[in-house]
Design goal:
With 1666 residues, the protein is an alpha+beta fold. Helix content is 46%, strand content 10%. The protein has 54 helices and 28 strands. The strands form 8 sheets. Strands 9, 10, 11, 12, 15, 16, 17, 18 and 19 form a 9-stranded mixed beta sheet that branches. Helix 1 packs across helix 15 and helix 19 packs across helix 20. The longest helix is centred in the middle third of the chain and has 33 residues.
């Protein structure tokens, strides 16, 4: 602990104060001395020049060139030295023979040198640099860009350079990697190896480097120590890099695996030092002899082509001297910044801004900024990452240049003020006093740089630029938060361009003449464009990557060439294409909507409504926005919360799912959700634009007057203020009403004299209120966190800090105010009650674009998959559920937010989604108009103890608490107790919803060991395994090709013998059902006894069945594959299938595709590897599912038909794959209904196998809103504690549970390695257009394509409706076919959809008795015919059983609905939902072939058979007026249409007699009689029969007299009564006898001996009368 504290004080505190210089006891004296002298030089040079020379430009002329020269030399030498270490030559020299030994060794036997660039007669012109380091310093180090011994094309080890070098000495024994710290590849060997020279090298190549077709992809690596033989002194050369590849299908030898492990060592170890010698080299010598023969190493540093010097130190020493700048551009930038710091610093010095001791302090600041460019502070207090941060080195000089430039500008402005004064709210901003005060403030801030950077108040440069652009865009231009530096620059640039375009119009309008009743038209144009541009900008995401991708796909479409051999070619992420489509739809919609709203608001503004109706209009708008905002953003969210106002124990407005234990469907849209959507729509699209336009009209002339801002500046302020107010209202109107109401009350009632027009008042108050809300959240976090009655001390330091922080409360409030002003986190120091301000961050917070990369087979080597099975821990496997949850949120989050299901929300809010096992933190980053960008962070399923305590806190209810202080008197019903209400107010979180419905996966895991414990269960699995192989081989499209393959026939020649038996010892009678005990193996005969019937059945199901007998080639192939599959299972089980653990190991190996072909008898499989991939692997996977089904119905699969259909069903509805297979992830993200996998869990000492079953369903989550300042503060505290303070304690106090702030859950969600989430999603954008329920309320996007489709469909409906209503007498709305092409496509979709087929009922035929086929039609009519998809036979059956079921059926049916037929939106167009009893189909537009076929059927039917007619004779031609067919006969027509269009539907065709069109509607003559049930007595026309107007023509006068209350007397029709229809009157009928007097169909119903006239919508059809 003490050494760590000293290290923090040296490298953290002191280095931060000095700019990077500190004394490092672990480095050599030379390193520390150089650092000290260099820092003193940078400090003393400006100070000495200032003191010795007069304050003139002479100081600048001397100081800047000196600094430039020093930095150029240092940076150039440093860069060249690193290049020398990367690609230079390593020379080994004996310490006693440095100069003369070289010529002797060149003549030795072991020399295999190549020609040096100096030539063979090199006189030794190189000179050696003096040794600067101690003996203990390692001679050769490692770097981030490493080198190692390379291979030349002849597999000889040596140099790839043309310079002189000898053969590298070789160490080929097994002791290459002695310890974990020894990361060197020792290429030295004993003298015997050197003497044999090239012979031994060839031997080495054949053992260690002989790959046999195997390349190995090894990380670049630089040896940590070079060891050579003392006898054979040679010059060894290491090439810069050798890249070798590894093909996973090859087999590695032991030396290769050893070399692979050696060279793929963790890169963190490359920074460690290795100073011990190899035991092989140290053994022959004593201490004295070892010192005498110690080897010297140096690099050749080439100064000139013929001149080099020896560099006698390594990479680690060089890195300890100076930071490495990898690119030339970095070196140039460092030199420029150093010169700029010197120039600006010297300018401020000679201008006299500093006096006395402050001159020295300023020189200290200059020295720290320049020194950080040579050796920066690592880690810096504002560094967001562990290790070396290259960007942080530029922070100090960049901030210094900014501050110096600002000081100079402010001073210049204070001395050269113009007469123009800029004054707002009584403050003259152009006053010299204001500018001088600002200048002095910046000077003080600059002098405090050491303290500022030590505390960490300034971020690294890229973070600051992103933060600055984001803050300016949000507060000045009304933009949204940004997701990256590029997005921030892009969004800021878009805002500037928009202001520039609008400024010209505004300026031109202000130059025009104004009067009290006249506003220039140009200003109205400006207002219309302002609203349109603001609307468009609010709907665009700040991230332009999707937009760029869309443009690129349109301009340069890529044709993706799929490689069928690539297993990842079929895996495609659907999200990018979905995002591009969403952006495209929004752009098309904006093209129309922006034009419409621009013209609309231009028309409103030019109508002088904002001048004539003043001042009443403004107060009406203020009152309206106050009422609508209060109801929408306060009342409705409160009454929908789980604990409204923290007083009630349950929501006052409950959803349908609130009381459901298990949710099975999507969330139901409630009336208050629709109300919330419409209020929000009206508020942000109507009320706020009117308010802004009203203030623009009333304030523009005043702002642009010379008394205020004048025309130029006034036009700019008007444009910026209008754009900001409109964009913020469109994007996030949650708290806008508070700002508007407060501004009106403050500046209209309290301080009217201070008002600078309402437009500017609203603009500045919106900025102020944003900061005030942030301050409120910070204070709530502080109060909650340090409340004495709920403080949780995680460590002894917390107990000390709690009372220590009390006297500093005033400072805490000042920090809170300052941090709110700059939007910086206020973080608890080490998790205690002491709060400190962190550096500024954007809303995104994390500066790295970090997201989890799931480990699977697509990003790991096959060797590691076979050996260590990476990614098998639960966290990696479970991360896919959070990834799927992210996709579900991407689809529905924005719509759910607009529906109010997450309560109020704003930019930066954080929510926690908690379910049974899922706990995820959702961070809302960017909130736009119809879009939300968020990031999801998934926590561990089985978290720590502290996490579980906090999960319990957010999931337990407080409704049962009955406490009141110290007693428990109870509470009022539906109201919280006093203690519960008090505790809820002292939490940094609150429960918003307890039943938030989201689509996800439920997880079911069963132990595979318990399912395969006994031999009988393993035998069942093996049997299904064999049957699965047979199924897949017989259903394969390549079966004929395999049977004709000569290689396979040759390999299976022995298996074709009827007496063949495979006696492999891996077969076991306990698990193989076809085991032949007599022959002690699996014979062909025993195989056929068990599986021949299954082969025959599978073959019979083929389109072209094959000949199957015992001697057929198909049986031979099946036998060979099944033997091979079981042998592979036994081999993977290490031939120990009787052992459960071994059996499970082998089963899992085969499940993930690890097949080892170990027998020569199975090598025929290599003729086509598709047999393994498409037959054997699916067979083993399907067997696990069938084995699971075996427990529910053991004997069901004995029937081949049932088994075959089960496999087909599982193939269709179930994805079975290994969790490491990329297909598994693809299936989950594609929303597959069910998935199954065999998981091998090796975690925390456990080693078990589980069968994982995933079923997609709707999950219920609790939504908890967390104080966003609490989250930001805890995140910042964790980053500072782990990165800067280096606290590595896994049980540190800052991650202990604190239920009031959810400290552990929040800190666990930090980016790794600071936190430990199992999944962090990329920044994902959700669009409202993808939410189907929201589209039903507001409608879909308005684009040119949608408008065209709507017009076309409307025209088709009108044309067909008019044709049916005016020409044929049919019902207009019933003859609607849904609009042309879209209906046709929908019909095709329905026909192809297996789920749309209706259940088949009894089918009539000519042999049946009369009435036997009179059931309602059972066919699912295509939508083109005007019917829905409901199953009518099932509906009819339900209706016939009981009235109760009939009422239920009437609500669930579309076709049997008693309401008016209405248009329902489908995926292909508008499809009408029809009433089947009265729907009539116009035959005029049918093809003539169908009409003729209908006529032929009618002529073929015998007229003598009794029974009602279905289709009349004598159908008219296509040119005549169309004939209407009642709905009872639709099935006949549909049958013909199905035959013509490829559909086959059962239909009841009944004979009938000829009837005229006029008599078609008479039930007794030509129509099936239907029974109906009265459901609405209010629809009965009980006096229509006595009407003097004679609206209806009755079929019989006697019936008319009985069809009313005049003849009913004491009887009256009641709800539930049933009768049959004897007549109907239809609207617009050409026959007066069947024409209705209203626009609804009227029925004449006979109930017993009474007659009732009722409108069709008041009855429920019960089916045909039998």
């Amino acid at each position: 602990m003490g050494s760590q504290t000293l290290q923090i004080l040296r490298q953290g505190v002191w280095a931060a104060l000095s700019g990077g210089w500190y004394y490092d006891p672990h480095q050599a004296t030379f390193v520390n001395a150089l650092h000290l002298y260099l820092w003193l030089f940078l400090l003393g040079l400006p100070f000495t020049l200032y003191m010795a020379l007069p304050s003139s430009m002479i100081i600048v002329a001397v100081y800047c060139p000196v600094i430039a020269a020093v930095f150029i030399v240092l940076k150039m030498v440093n860069y060249r030295l690193h290049r020398a270490l990367d690609a230079g030559e390593i020379v080994d020299r004996n310490a006693n023979e440095f100069t003369d030994q070289r010529s002797k060794t060149e003549q030795g036997n072991c020399s295999t040198r190549r020609k040096d660039s100096n030539g063979p007669s090199d006189p030794g012109g190189g000179i050696e640099m003096a040794e600067f380091i101690r003996e203990a310093t390692p001679p050769v180090g490692c770097s981030s860009r490493n080198s190692y011994a390379g291979l030349d094309p002849s597999n000889q080890i040596g140099s790839g350079s043309s310079r002189l070098g000898t053969a590298a000495t070789i160490k080929g024994d097994t002791d290459t990697a002695k310890t974990s710290d020894d990361i060197s590849l020792s290429l030295g060997q004993s003298s015997s190896l050197c003497k044999e020279g090239s012979e031994e090298q060839g031997k080495f190549s054949s053992t260690l480097y002989e790959t046999g077709g195997c390349d190995m992809s090894l990380v670049n690596f630089e040896p940590a120590a070079r060891r050579a033989s003392n006898i054979c002194d040679t010059d060894s050369h290491v090439s810069s890099s050798t890249s070798v590849r590894f093909y996973p299908h090859d087999v590695l030898s032991l030396p290769q695996i050893r070399l692979n492990r050696l060279l793929t060592i963790d890169t963190d170890l490359l920074e460690q030092q290795d100073i011990d010698l190899s035991p092989d080299l140290a053994a022959p010598y004593g201490p004295t002899e070892e010192a005498a023969h110690k080897v010297k190493h140096y690099y050749r540093f080439w100064i000139l082509p013929q001149l080099w010097i020896g560099i006698n130190f390594d990479r680690l020493t060089l890195l300890a001297l100076f930071d490495r700048n990898r690119e030339i551009l970095e070196n140039v930038l460092a030199v420029i910044l150093a010169i700029l710091v010197a120039f600006l610093g010297s300018i401020l010095l000679i201008q006299g801004f500093f006096r006395d001791i402050w001159v020295f302090q300023f020189c200290l600041v200059i020295a720290s900024c320049q020194y950080s460019l040579l050796k920066s502070v690592q880690p810096d207090s504002s560094s967001p990452r562990h290790g070396h941060n290259r960007i942080i080195a530029y922070s100090r000089p960049v901030y210094f240049c900014l501050c110096c430039g600002l000081i100079w500008l402010l001073d210049y402005g204070s001395r050269n003020l113009t007469t123009t004064k800029f004054k707002l709210y009584g403050i003259t901003f152009t006053s010299p006093l204001v500018l001088i005060s600002a200048r002095d403030l910046v000077i003080v801030f600059t002098l405090c740089f050491p303290i500022v950077f030590f505390i960490g108040l300034l971020p690294q440069v890229n973070t600051f630029v992103m933060y600055l652009c984001e803050q300016l865009d949000i507060h000045i231009f009304g933009g949204n938060a940004t997701t990256s530096l590029l997005a921030a620059l892009y969004s800021f640039a878009c805002s500037v361009v928009a202001v520039a375009l609008l400024y010209g119009l505004c300026y031109g309008a202000l130059k025009d003449s104004w009067d009290g009743q006249h506003i220039p038209v140009l200003f109205s144009i400006f207002c219309g464009l302002l609203v349109a541009v603001s609307y468009h900008l609010s709907r665009q995401s700040s991230d332009p990557s999707v937009l760029f991708s869309l443009v690129q796909s349109k301009i340069f479409p890529k044709t993706e060439e799929k490689n069928p051999e690539d297993p990842l070619s079929e895996v495609k992420d659907p999200l990018p294409e979905k995002l591009r489509n969403s952006v495209s739809e929004r752009l098309q919609s904006d093209l129309v909507v922006c034009i419409v709203i621009g013209v609309l608001y231009f028309a409103i503004h030019v109508s002088t409504v904002f001048t004539v109706l003043q001042p009443a209009l403004k107060y009406v708008l203020y009152a309206l926005v106050g009422f609508v905002g209060f109801v929408t953003h306060y009342v409705l969210p409160q009454v929908r919360k789980q604990l409204p106002w923290h007083c009630f124990s349950h929501p006052l407005l409950k959803t349908v799912e609130y009381n459901q234990y298990e949710v099975r469907n999507a969330a139901t849209v409630m009336w208050f959700e629709k109300l919330h959507v419409w209020l929000l729509f009206v508020e942000k699209n109507i009320i706020y634009p009117l308010i802004v336009l009203n203030e623009l009209s009333s304030s523009a002339e005043t702002i642009a007057s010379p008394k205020k801002l004048d025309t130029e500046l006034g036009a700019l302020m008007i444009t910026i203020a209008g754009l900001k107010l409109l964009r913020s209202s469109f994007s996030s109107p949650t708290y806008q009403y508070v700002t508007v109401i407060f501004t009106v009350l403050f500046f209209k009632i309290d301080y009217e004299a201070f008002s600078e027009t309402m437009l500017l008042d609203l603009f500045f108050m919106s900025i102020l209120f944003n900061k005030l809300w942030e301050l409120l959240y910070k204070l709530q976090f502080v109060y909650t966190y340090i409340a004495p009655w709920q403080i949780t001390w995680g460590s002894a330091f917390h107990a000390f800090a709690q009372p220590f922080a009390v006297p500093h409360s005033a400072m805490l409030f000042v920090q809170a105010a300052v941090s709110a002003f700059f939007s910086t986190p206020l973080n608890p120091f080490l998790g205690s009650a002491i709060f400190i301000t962190s550096y500024v961050r954007p809303v995104k917070f994390w500066e790295r674009d970090y997201n989890t990369k799931r480990v699977d087979h697509s990003n790991t080597r096959l060797a590691s998959q076979l050996d260590r099975n990476p990614g098998s821990d639960d966290n990696n496997l479970n991360s896919i559920f959070y990834e799927h949850l992210t996709r579900s949120l991407q689809h529905s989050l924005c719509g759910d937010l607009l529906l109010g299901r997450w309560g109020n929300y704003s930019t930066g809010d954080c929510f926690i989604l908690a379910s049974d096992y899922l706990n995820a933190l959702v961070h809302l980053i960017e909130i736009g108009n119809g879009l939300v960008t968020f990031q999801l962070r998934g926590l561990e399923f089985r978290g720590t103890y502290c996490q579980q305590r906090e999960v319990e806190a957010i999931t337990e209810g407080v409704e049962e608490d009955e406490g009141f202080c110290c007693c428990e008197p109870g509470h009022i019903p539906h109201v919280l107790s006093f203690n519960a209400a008090f505790s809820q107010r002292w939490l940094a979180w609150e429960v918003i919803v307890t039943k938030y419905i989201l689509e996800g996966y439920s997880i079911t895991d069963n132990s595979a060991a318990s399912m395969l414990q006994v031999f009988d269960l393993r035998k069942v699995l093996t049997t299904y395994y064999v049957k699965g192989i047979i199924y897949y081989v017989t259903t394969s499209s390549k079966l004929e090709e395999w049977l004709a393959n000569e290689t396979m026939q040759e390999g299976l020649r022995l298996c074709a013998d009827r007496n063949y038996v495979d006696v492999d010892p891996t077969f076991n009678p306990n698990i193989d059902e076809d085991y032949d005990h007599r022959l002690a193996g699996i014979s062909r005969e025993s195989f056929c006894v068990i599986y021949l019937s299954w082969i025959e059945y599978c073959s019979s199901r083929r389109a072209k069945p094959l000949d199957v007998d015992k001697d057929s080639s198909l049986v031979t192939l099946c036998y060979g594959l099944c033997v091979l599959g079981r042998r592979a299972l036994g081999t993977a089980s290490h031939h120990m299938s009787s052992n459960l653990e071994s059996f499970l190991y082998g089963l899992h190996a085969l499940f993930k595709g690890d097949f080892r072909i170990s027998s020569i008898r199975d090598e025929w499989i290599f003729a086509d590897m598709e047999l393994l991939r498409k037959v054997v692997v699916p067979g083993i996977r399907m067997s696990i599912k069938l084995h699971q089904d075996h427990f529910t119905s053991p004997d069901e699969y004995d029937d081949p038909t049932v088994l075959y259909e089960a496999i087909v069903s599982h193939e269709k509805n179930l994805v079975i794959a290994h969790e490491g297979d990329p297909a598994w992830r693809s299936a989950v993200l594609a929303n597959s209904p069910s998935l199954l996998a065999l998981r091998h869990v090796m975690d925390d000492g456990t080693n078990e196998y589980k069968i994982i079953m995933l079923n997609r369903r709707y999950l219920s989550f609790r939504v908890i809103k967390v104080n966003k300042e609490c989250v930001r503060g805890l995140w910042a505290g964790q980053q500072q504690e782990l990165v800067f303070l280096r606290n590595r304690n896994p049980e540190r106090g800052s991650i202990q549970n604190a239920k009031q702030a959810l400290r552990n859950m929040i800190n666990s969600s930090c980016d790794q390695p600071i936190g430990y989430p199992i999944f962090v999603s990329p920044l994902t954008t959700s669009y409202s257009d993808s939410h189907e329920q929201l589209k039903e309320i507001l409608g879909g996007p308005i684009s040119l394509g949608n408008i065209r489709n709507f017009i076309v469909s409307t025209w088709h409906r009108l044309r067909k409706g008019c044709g049916a209503g005016c020409n044929s007498g049919g019902n207009i709305e019933d003859s609607d076919t849904g609009g042309g092409p879209s209906s046709t496509s929908n019909s095709a979709t329905t026909a192809n959809d297996p789920h749309s087929s209706a259940s088949q009922g009894s089918t009539g035929n000519p042999g049946q008795a009369p009435g036997a086929g009179l059931h309602p039609p059972v066919t699912s009519y295509p939508p083109t015919l005007g019917t829905s998809h409901s199953s009518q036979s099932v509906q009819s059956g339900l209706v016939r059983q009981s009235p109760a079921r009939a009422s239920v059926a009437s609500q669930s049916s579309y076709c049997y609905s008693s309401r008016h037929s209405s248009l329902r939106m489908s995926t292909t167009g508008f499809v009408p939902c029809r009433r089947s009893s009265t729907s009539q189909i116009s035959l005029r537009n049918l093809p003539s072939s169908i009409q003729s076929r209908l006529s032929m059927v009618n002529q073929m039917e015998p007229s003598s058979q009794s029974g009602p007619a279905c289709v009349p004779h004598g159908l008219p031609s296509s040119s005549s007026s169309s004939q209407s067919i009642p709905a009872c006969k639709h099935h006949t027509l549909v049958g013909f249409l199905g035959t013509d269009g490829g559909q086959s539907c059962a239909a009841d065709v009944q004979p009938g007699s000829t009837s005229s069109p006029a008599n078609n509607s008479h039930a007794k003559k030509g129509e099936v009689i239907y029974r109906v049930q009265i459901v609405d007595p209010g629809q009965i026309l009980d006096g229509i029969n006595l009407s003097k107007r004679k609206e209806l023509q009755w079929p019989d006068e006697g019936i008319r007299l009985k069809a009313g209350r005049n003849s009913w007397k004491d009887w009256s029709p009641q709800e539930g009564m049933e009768g049959h229809v004897i007549h109907r009157w239809v609207p617009c009928s050409r026959d007066p006898g069947t024409r209705s007097h209203i626009d609804k169909t009227v029925l004449l119903v006979q109930i017993e001996d009474k007659y009732v006239t009722v409108i069709e919508t008041g009855v429920l059809e019960l089916g045909a009368e039998v």
